[in-house]
TrEMBL record, chain A:
One of its GO terms (biological process) is response to antibiotic. The lineage of its organism: Bacteria, Bacillati, Actinomycetota, Actinomycetes, Propionibacteriales. SMART domains: AAA. This is ABC-2 type transport system ATP-binding protein. Transmembrane segments: none annotated. It comes from Nocardioides albus. GO terms for cellular component: plasma membrane.
From TrEMBL, chain B:
Its main location: membrane. InterPro entries: ABC-2_transporter_component, ABC2_TM. This is ABC-2 type transport system permease protein. Keywords: Cell membrane, Membrane, Transmembrane, Transmembrane helix. One of its GO terms (molecular function) is ABC-type transporter activity. GO terms for cellular component: plasma membrane. It is found in: Cell membrane. It holds the Pfam family ABC2_membrane_3. The chain crosses the membrane at residues 23-44, 174-199, 220-241, 261-288, 300-324, 344-365. PANTHER family: MEMBRANE COMPONENT OF ABC TRANSPORTER YHHJ-RELATED (PTHR30294), MULTIDRUG ABC TRANSPORTER PERMEASE YBHS-RELATED (PTHR30294:SF29). It is a multi-pass membrane protein.
Length: 293, 390
């Protein structure tokens, strides 16, 4: 397990990352969400040791992470790029060798991955001759060879077409299944919701919410949706509720006092027909807006 | 499994990328062609024999021209004179204009006139002047009842000099400046390439992936060493071709005197080059894009100019002092060695000083390099880079 505790980093007077702690358990995907400038990239850079932390620690399997550990982590920085003029196989082998792999092993593994990504015939092409999507694939391979002990990926899905997103998602799941802790950041909240076992939400340098999707939803406010035969305007007068929205026969309410929703339902049936009454499970994007507001 | 040190992997990539780069190959071939061409031209013009067709239009001048032809090889072994008969002065002028003959010799009131189309070649002039003087002197001496030998007896001036051989001194001078020029251009050329390859990694952002995997000191070391191997390899090829070429010309007598100094030059070149490379790497790290490189490398190009002009203009005490001050010593000490004005222990002291300076500079450069490398927002000043936190 990879674990971050109390990480803090200032740039001048600005605190970019403020006392950030979260675990990245083995065998699962951890999604890292937050707006631009929330501190995700700075946190990931500190995890990888590219940026020094002013406070806090990163631990790996229970001990403070070392350079040797990090050398085995697959990393995809937010600002990416490889050598534009070097053939892709050559530069991937070079990067793998920097991370301690022998040239022959690197060549073999990279060739397999290039074939899997449909780039098997282009190993000798310089990177700049590839389309942006294919360049992104090469970048992913750079993070996956040698077989990573952990994966730290900053925006791995940005710039990918839907097919590539699916392939990427499969790949991350595969690694997670093999017991590799995977943390990745993304702006695509629904994708994160669909993929991740755990979520870490950052805003203004701090972690504002974290946990599994279920946990986050359980923490979110209790909401009900009501559809009546007649006008729903009277709902505003029921105590213990916050009305989020009313239009014609429909209303959505948030429960402030326990049991208020039962009183609402009783009142509704006494006034006429009730066409629908159900609990609203908030989408992650809604929770996100709530916790980052 | 024992893995290869990181700097070696980096250096190997630098070398592999460079030697397969078309512009490097073309540059090397052109440079070799220039060296071979220059030496070939020198050898050719040294050994070239020239034949001049000199015309006469009277029996007096025929005797004179034939006399010159007889003596020409005594005066200059590479010059041959071929007498050619013409009808008169007009015919001679016409033949000159048509370039059928090279010169027309005829007597006039004060002696003789050599008519040529344009300015006469110095070889032709020398031979004609000396031969005519000798022939006339002999004639006049006989008319006066004596001999030329009698007349010129005791007038010979032998040349002797205390300080070495003047021709060797000239060669030392030329070789010294040639080495300074080679150092200057190699530093600029390879330095720029190094700075470019640093900024390329920064601009393409790959450096962040490398930084996550290996210590930046190893990256810096690998890049500098790889670059130095290429530079020194290329220099060795040039020096070897140059020396072999030189040995084929008439200047070959200078080789034994120079080979020690050239050996020192290679050592100083290597150390000085590595020291300057660290500065070039910093210049690359301070830039964010290739376009910034011009301005971020200004301080080092200025330093190189100072070194270069120092090498050209310093002499006497200034040269001796300069030959100890790093990095100026990287150029001046080898030049003094070529000149033969440095004692055997002097290059050793200068080299130790240069190495110490280099170690200090590398430490400084490493800090600047590793801090500036991840800053991608525009060009950094040295001061700003120094203050950056890791």
């Amino acid at each position: 397990m990879l674990e971050v505790s109390g990480l803090t980093r200032r740039f001048g007077d600005m605190v970019a990352v403020d006392d950030v702690s979260f675990p990245v358990p083995s065998g699962g995907l951890t999604g890292f969400v937050g707006g631009n400038g929330a501190g995700k990239t700075t946190t990931m850079r500190m995890i990888m040791g590219v940026l020094a932390a002013h406070a806090g620690t990163v631990s790996w399997q229970g001990h403070a992470v070392t350079r040797a550990d990090r050398r085995r982590f697959g990393y995809m920085p937010e600002e990416r790029g490889l050598y534009p003029k070097q053939p892709i196989l050559d530069q991937l082998v070079y990067l793998a060798r920097l991370r301690g792999m022998s040239a022959a092993d690197a060549r073999r593994e990279i060739t397999v991955l290039l074939e899997r990504f449909g780039l098997g015939g282009r190993t000798k092409d310089p990177l700049e001759k590839l389309s942006l999507g294919n360049q992104q694939r090469v970048q992913i391979i750079a993070a996956l060879v040698p077989a990573p002990a952990a994966l730290v990926l900053d925006e791995p899905f940005s710039g990918l077409d839907p097919d590539a997103i699916d392939a990427m998602a499969d790949l991350l799941r595969e690694h997670a299944r093999d017991g590799v802790p995977v943390v990745f950041s993304s702006h695509q909240l629904d994708l994160v919701d669909r993929l991740c076992d755990r979520l870490v939400v950052m805003a203004r340098g701090r972690v504002v919410a974290q946990g599994t999707g279920e946990e986050l939803r359980a923490d979110a406010s209790l909401r009900y949706r009501l559809v009546l035969g007649g006008d729903a305007g009277w709902v505003r007068d029921v105590p213990g509720l916050h009305v989020r929205d009313v239009s014609g026969p429909e209303a959505e309410v948030e429960v402030l006092a326990e049991g208020a929703e039962q009183k609402l339902l009783a009142e509704a049936t006494s006034r006429g027909s009730v066409l629908d009454f159900h609990r609203v499970v908030p989408r992650l994007s809604e929770i996100y807006r709530e916790v980052t507001a | 499994m024992r893995t290869q040190p990181v700097w070696q992997i980096v250096a190997r990539r630098e070398i592999a990328v460079r030697v397969t780069d078309k512009s490097t190959i073309i540059g090397t071939v052109i440079m070799l062609a220039v060296i071979v061409g220059a030496l070939g031209f020198a050898a050719w013009s040294e050994s070239r024999e020239k034949t001049y067709e000199v015309a006469y239009s009277s029996t007096t001048s025929q005797a004179m021209v034939e006399g010159i032809a007889e003596r020409s090889t005594e005066i200059d072994e590479k010059v041959h004179i071929e007498p050619v008969a013409v009808d008169d002065a007009d015919a001679a002028e016409h033949a000159l204009e048509e370039e059928q003959i090279d010169a027309y010799l005829h007597p006039d009131a004060d002696g003789w006139t050599l008519l040529t189309l344009a300015e006469a070649d110095s070889e032709l002039r020398g031979v004609v002047e000396q031969a005519v003087e000798a022939i006339v002197l002999t004639g006049n001496a006989e008319a006066a009842g004596t001999s030329a030998a009698e007349l010129t007896k005791g007038s010979a001036v032998a040349l002797d000099q205390i300080e070495g051989d003047s021709e060797l001194t000239a060669i030392r001078w030329v070789v010294g400046y040639a080495l300074a020029i080679v150092f200057y251009f190699a530093s600029i050329m390879f330095g720029m390439t190094l700075a470019n390859s640093v900024v390329e990694e920064k601009q393409s952002r790959i450096v962040e992936m490398i930084a996550a995997a290996v210590p930046l000191r190893q990256l810096l070391a690998g890049k500098i060493i790889g670059n130095a191997v290429i530079a020194v390899g290329q220099m060795l090829i040039y020096v070897a071709v140059g020396l072999v070429g030189l040995s084929l010309t008439d200047f070959s007598f200078a080789l034994p005197a120079l080979s020690g100094a050239i050996g020192w030059f290679v050592i100083f070149f290597l150390v000085g080059f590595v020291v300057l490379s660290t500065l070039w790497a910093v210049a690359g790290a301070l830039a964010s894009r290739t376009e910034d490189l011009q301005s971020s490398s200004t301080p080092i190009t200025m330093l190189l100019m100072v070194m270069f002009f120092g090498a050209l203009y310093l002499d006497g005490v200034g040269e001796v002092i300069g030959s100890y001050i790093p990095p100026l010593s990287a150029v001046l000490m080898p030049m003094r060695l070529v000149d033969g004005t440095a004692a055997w222990w002097e290059p050793i002291i200068a080299l130790v000083l240069l190495l110490a300076f280099g170690v200090a500079l590398v430490r400084l450069a490493e800090r600047l390099y590793s801090r500036a490398l991840l800053q991608t927002g525009g060009q950094l000043s040295l001061k700003a880079a120094w203050r950056l936190e890791e």
